[in-house]
């Protein structure tokens, strides 16, 4: 290896001299003499072939359960996404996706969109993790990064459940070195403890044998078997519906696409009773080719960017990637859904004279682009699937995004304005305020950093002033009361939502979950539409610092608007009291906006309050109105186990702060396994600080919420107890005062990332998760597992 390293440096010296002489020489590859030239190989075989069956039934399950749990999203180390054959073949990159300091936007590297084949990914700087040189069993192993790293782990001593040392740095902000094949041997020699799975126990000898055989044989891979006729018929039916010629249908399809493009679409008439692992999922994509032809992706940063072609076709593309909890957004398609879309967008009497253009000032403003469609129809489309709509910014491009997510509290409830209360008034408001509802996306991905909070406040204040007239009108007509709150049409369980934030990720659940939170949002149509476009449709994870900061700053206004809508139902003095409490120690410009006369209005509520705690009274009245629609299967009940765990909801200050953001507790009773999630909700004096969240932390206001089942995608800790020892676990959590106490808790009940039983426990959790939550379950992500 030392000789190889010396030769490498000598050849680089020759290259530099040749460059000075003006002679063009390609970059030297030190592995050529050992293994031959590198070039992408065609590894995809038919799924019914022997090699295809081996991959699908033996290899892929190991990759999913042991590798994809760290290598699945944009924030996968080294951009190595192992969720599909295309991702495995693409390999890894040294470029960082999540960079909040980049001056210029980077080129997108979205798997399945931004390159058509492995050769194109090599042109974009991705290096292989499989052997792309001489194809022999020996070279297939020696020249494979994947093999080098999993075999390195096999050479290391087994973990013994003790915490990891400093030689294995962890955390999302840990810089990834991402060695190429030519650098791997030196890297592992210098970092022998960095084998894969990184910072976790080695895979079993049996699993290692399967992967070794697969890699030695050439790492052939297969996609899913071809779709059967019932599925292709459904695809054809929906593509025909979405691609009709008349302008009304074309505008409808564009709106539907811009709101569903992140979804995992499935055909309910075929797969409704299957769990998420066994369903066929599809994604809606833009293509330059019509139905019946192979899909040719329209490559743009955003779903509304100029496609550069005369006619866009909306197609359903089969999902080939693994289903991850952090990106899984199921959305059903069936005949009832199609009729519902027709009822909203086709049957109403309105005329589409021409289709909107793709200029940023038009396409980035949905109130301009889709002004022909009645706002009630647009609102209904998002509202009746509100969990999916809000989930877009929870699970979409902000799958890792503290800058975008520290704009919301750790725990709050969401209610919605009734779409039928005053549709004419809302139509007029939206139509007259198009320019004041402009979004930062108009500035695209290289936005100026100088755009600041104050400049955004001008259009927002103007809009709120005009909206105030509508609120006054409701008050005068005695409608500023509980009628303002949508009741789900007495059957829709999307009427209420709960959002939990876990530092730089979050979760949205149906129903009002957990204790009464500090804040509640009341969302109307303009607010819901702007949330979607700000944080989903227009958000570019590859954008520059200006784009990311503008997104964060604008979301401040949307949060305050949702809170203000809720407060409008309370007595004026109570509004002021709660504003002051929610925005303690705020910056001066925030105070001026929040407490200014144009926002802090005195319109009289039409609700007659009876108690001196009107906020709690209002929430209880809302619960009574909503009935069972406000309940959730995640809430604790009066059962024995739940009653014991409910004690954790009222812990004294100190103990909650020592707990992780999200931990999964499994309770064993005979052959039964019950799963719970323990969430730490962090207290803040306010959440208006862009970069200094710690300055606003109030640990004394931290509290825990215990939910049934899995809440969240990124467990930071696992605990496992037998039912007879649950009281002991609860007592240990309740008595936490120091890190040593938490260390003892983990020694007694924790399944640390170094536990020899970690992978077996991980498998049990995933199996139970899929059984308990079959529609929403997916692979959990271990990039945030703590080392405590």
Write the layout of secondary structure elements.
Elements: H1 2-20, H2 32-35, H3 50-68, H4 85-90, H5 118-123, H6 137-142, H7 145-155, H8 184-190, H9 205-216, H10 229-242, H11 247-260, E1 264-267, H12 268-271, E2 282-287, E3 313-318, E4 330-333, H13 335-345, H14 360-363, H15 366-369, H16 375-383, H17 386-395, H18 402-405, E5 411-416, H19 423-432, H20 453-476, E6 497-501, E7 506-510, E8 519-523, H21 525-537, H22 545-567, H23 572-582, H24 588-595, H25 614-626, H26 640-645, H27 655-658, E9 662-669, E10 672-681, E11 703-708, E12 717-722, H28 726-734, H29 739-749, H30 758-772
Parallel strand pairs: 1-4, 5-8, 9-12
Antiparallel strand pairs: 2-3, 5-6, 6-7, 9-10, 10-11
Helix pairs in contact: 3-9, 7-9, 16-21, 17-21, 20-22, 21-22
What does this structure look like?
This protein has 788 residues and is α/β, with parallel strands linked by helices. The protein has five domains: 1-30; 40-46 and 54-216, no CATH class; 227-355, no CATH class; 386-632, no CATH class; 640-772, Nonspecific Lipid-transfer Protein, Chain A (2-Layer Sandwich), CATH 3.30.1050. 39% of the residues lie in helices and 9% in strands. The strands form four sheets. Strands 7-6-5-8 form a four-stranded mixed sheet. It has a four-stranded mixed sheet with strand order 11-10-9-12, covered by helices on one side. Helix 17 runs parallel beside helix 21. The protein is globular and about 85 Å long. The two termini are 37 Å apart. The model is unreliable at 1-26 (pLDDT under 50). Keywords: Isomerase. GO terms for molecular function: isomerase activity. It comes from Litoribrevibacter albus. It holds the Pfam family CTI. This is 9-hexadecenoic acid cis-trans isomerase.
